[in-house]
Amino acid sequence: KAGVTQTPRYLIKTRGQQVTLSCSPISGHRSVSWYQQTPGQGLQFLFEYFSETQRNKGNFPGRFSGRQFSNSRSEMNVSTLELGDSALYLCASSLAGGVGPDTQYFGPGTRLTVL
Amino acid sequence: ILNVEQSPQSLHVQEGDSTNFTCSFPSSNFYALHWYRWETAKSPEALFVMTLNGDEKKKGRISATLNTKEGYSYLYIKGSQPEDSATYLCASVGGTGNQFYFGTGTSLTVIP
After folding, report:
1. Which chain B positions have a beta carbon within 8 Å of A3's beta carbon?
2. Which residues of B touch A101 (CB under 8 A)?
């Protein structure tokens, strides 16, 4: 079974621009979560999508948004980029079957650099 | 928001040494505790998921225990090898079971 894939792997943008990151979950997984990792910080939860609906949201400004498509693929968008948005963005997918604890499986991440 | 803490922040051990790390989490509204290993330039890899107080899980030389009443989990590595060098993350899951709260990780370096 193919793992979680993320595109692009690396991205360089300038302040004020916007960016869209893509995540394809493991086949059959219905939940996709997004995380931001900056130096010295743990994985900060951005949001989680399940069946095309945002189910949970972390404490990030409205410039960060996402969506999920009917095939469970997800995109994350950041508008009006700031220098502090430079980070590794990880997505993770899970079955979210609702029975027992769900393990999240991570993609390789997208390294975003904002100049 | 759940406050999950890990200690130590980093650790250097000699090959063959055994070591352990701690993950502390709020004991109220607990659902599950996950451990991940994250090697440089790779994706975080799931190691264990534990839900019950007193749970113990083992995978090769790595094992983990869980105390939900006092809110901590230990990860043990027996006879550390250079390939064990990685950052070890724990994540506490509360509430409805689908939001993970990660600690900042313990960075382990095993010196040959």
Report:
1. 43
2. 31-32, 34, 49, 51, 93, 97
